[in-house]
Design goal:
227 residues, mainly alpha, two-stranded antiparallel sheet
Length: 227
């Protein structure tokens, strides 16, 4: 049976059969089209082993990465992209890109990669660890971690987040009783942040740990638009 794959690239749609060679070629053309600087560099690294139905998500993530790097000199980008360390980090990121269902998640990944390219503060293994931590968190847990940071610095913004994301209140409310299965899952978001050592402090004054703040610095939750 022949399936069809649709990839959006510069206001056009490419309809191609799921033959591996055709998909790989169309995928590379799409990446180069949406990201003329970063795209060709990615095309040198990527292989045709990525599941066909997830290629479009990677194309979008690469486009977002290109946007994040628009103020960085092209020679700097090319030089760092060709290093073994960044190639290794990018290969770790591809599966996450392929699974990224939301604009926010694509933004987190792109921001982390862009900051890894432009910030030499962390070594390669530390950058890989942050990418791994990002993979362990769902979008709600990232929002919750972000809220803990915002609560320390901006009460007005924290109030706005509580209004926008009602689950936060349930997640941070430490009650012995659990009213619904949904409430239980909200508590699990908090538990995940504890288990990954991303928040710390007494219950009523919990805040991100140094690692939690570092992760937020790299994924920049306030800058996750894919528009």
């Amino acid at each position: 049976m022949t399936e069809k794959l649709t990839i959006k690239a510069k206001d056009q749609q490419l309809d191609i059969d799921t033959n591996r060679a055709d998909i790989a070629a169309a995928f590379i053309r799409s990446i180069v089209g949406v990201a003329p600087i970063v795209g060709p560099l990615v095309a040198e690294i990527i292989t045709a082993t990525i599941p066909n139905q997830k290629l479009e998500r990677i194309v979008i993530s690469i486009r977002v990465l290109e946007d994040r790097l628009k103020y960085v000199e092209e020679d700097v980008i090319r030089g760092k992209f060709k290093t073994d360390t960044f190639t290794d980090l990018l290969e770790d990121a591809f599966p996450q890109m392929a699974r990224a269902l939301t604009d926010e998640r694509k933004g987190y990944i792109a921001n982390l990669l862009a900051n890894s390219l432009t910030d030499d503060t962390l070594n390669h293994l530390a950058q890989k660890k942050l990418l791994s931590l990002l993979n362990e968190l769902n979008d709600a847990e990232i929002i919750l971690l972000h809220f803990y940071a915002v609560r320390q610095a901006d009460e007005e913004k924290a109030a706005a987040m509580l209004k926008e994301y009602p689950f936060i209140q349930e997640a941070i409310t430490h009650k012995p009783e659990t009213r619904t299965e949904e409430d239980l899952m909200f508590r699990e978001y908090h538990g995940t942040l504890i288990m990954t050592s991303l928040i710390m402090g007494p219950v009523e004054k919990e805040h991100p740990s140094p690692t939690g703040y570092l992760l937020l610095k790299y994924i920049q939750p306030d800058k996750t638009s894919c528009g």
